[in-house]
Write a structure and sequence with these properties.
alpha+beta; single chain; Methane Monooxygenase Hydroxylase, Chain G, domain 1; 8 strands; Alpha-Beta Plaits; about 400 residues; 15 helices; 4-stranded antiparallel sheet; 3 domains
């Protein structure tokens, strides 16, 4: 039987989800110095490449008129940006595989991150196989969320609560670093037993360089999220914010080069600093790819509807909610609210008085009128709006939802 050709929407979803997971896994490979995690990034890169080759072929077959070609040009433009993100994630992973040098100070800084990504394999003696994700309630027990599963060569992105785990499954999880060892133990593995970061009395030139690499990592992650949001919400203000982030990325990269040169002059073996430069360059290319995407939000004509459908049906959706007076969110910090635990949603940015605060800190206190731009599973969006006191119905402005298109 001839294999069914996948649709443009399916291929875009596959490529986008895989590329985003690649970025998370690549940085986690740096954090742990883990060749296996880096190898997973290369596996996913092959999947992205295959999906984008098929996508281009399907678009060529679908373009029967000049009007069709114009409409599908945006799809191909988005595909190029996704490919750029995937290629940059591969470069980050190769910092680990080629042992280009990752200073201990960088791993210590990454350890302070509120969330990280981990890879855990279910071994023969484990407590998870045969149970559904909902029954075992990993988030409640460990703080970690399963964002993807690899079973042999098949990938499942954003598994739902009915997914039954099997021995041999490779789980990819996101959450606080202290939850990783809990999951590893449940999966029949051994704990990493990560030691706490070493406290330094004064900031060195290397410390400053490392801080900039971490900033570039954070900038690149939020730039991609805001770019997808700009396209889905057709928000030129968000597109302009991505451009400002790109300027900040350039400034941080230039400053980093100076601190690396100063740090190298103080070291007997400056070779270990090569990895910092590679990581910064790859992060900057991710931001460039994100900025390229935003052109789809800036054009007068709406992008092809398949783009919105594909982004809305991917592993995670983008949702916005406005904080109202008297709501559960007003006057509380993000740390106090623990929105990821409560709703599964991560706050990408906050708009306040026509200014954007991206990647807000846990200490950020919310105010009435704040517009939250969040990313997470579609089923979590109603809960987020309920907590914000935002009574707009599903499908109203700012709610990203896919519509069926018989021609996709």
């Amino acid at each position: 039987m001839r294999e069914r050709r996948r649709t443009v929407k399916e291929l875009l979803v596959d490529a986008k989800d895989a590329a985003e997971l690649m970025v998370d896994l690549a940085y986690a490979a740096v954090f742990f110095g883990d060749d296996d995690l880096a190898g997973e990034v290369l596996r996913l890169e092959d999947q992205v490449d295959a999906a984008l080759v098929d996508l281009r072929a399907v678009c060529m077959l679908a373009a029967r008129t000049p009007e069709d070609a114009d409409a599908l040009a945006g799809v191909l433009s988005l595909a190029v940006s996704i490919e750029g993100i995937a290629d940059s994630a591969e470069d980050i992973a190769r910092v680990v595989l080629k042992d280009l040098g990752v200073p201990r100070e960088l791993r210590d800084d990454l350890r302070h991150a509120s969330e990280t990504v981990a890879r855990v394999k279910l071994r023969e003696e484990n407590e998870l196989s045969g149970q559904t994700l909902r029954d075992f309630a990993l988030p409640a027990r460990t703080g970690m969320w399963v964002i993807a599963i690899r079973r042999d060569v098949e990938w499942l992105f954003g598994p739902d609560g009915d997914q039954v785990l099997q021995t041999g499954d490779v789980l990819f999880l996101q959450g606080p670093s202290e939850g990783i060892d809990l999951v590893r133990t449940l999966a029949g593995g051994t704990a990493h037993e990560l030691r706490p970061p070493t406290a330094e009395a004064t900031l060195t030139n290397l410390d400053r360089a490392v801080d900039l690499v971490v900033e570039l990592k954070n900038i690149s992650e939020v730039a991609v999220g805001l770019a997808y949001s700009a396209i889905l919400l057709r928000d030129r203000g968000l597109a302009a914010e991505v451009s400002r982030i790109e300027d900040r990325s350039d400034d941080a990269n230039h400053a980093l080069e100076g601190w690396v040169l100063r740090a190298a002059a103080e070291m007997d073996d400056p070779e270990q600093l090569r990895g910092l430069l590679h990581l910064a360059s790859a992060s900057e290319r991710i931001v460039d790819a994100a900025q390229s995407m935003t052109r789809l939000a800036e054009i007068d004509d709406a992008p092809h509807p398949i783009i919105a459908q594909a982004l809305a049906e991917s592993d995670e959706i983008v949702c916005e909610a406005v904080v109202h007076e008297g709501s559960r969110l007003e006057g509380r910090t993000l740390s106090e609210l623990a929105l990821h635990t409560e709703t599964g949603m991560e706050v990408l940015a906050i708009e306040r008085a026509q200014r954007w605060i991206y990647r807000p800190r846990p200490t950020r206190r919310l105010e009435a009128g704040d517009r939250l731009l969040c990313q997470g599973p579609e089923e979590s969006a109603p809960r987020l709006r309920e907590m914000a006191g935002d009574a707009r119905p599903e499908g109203d402005e700012g709610w990203v939802q896919a519509e069926e298109d018989p021609d996709d």
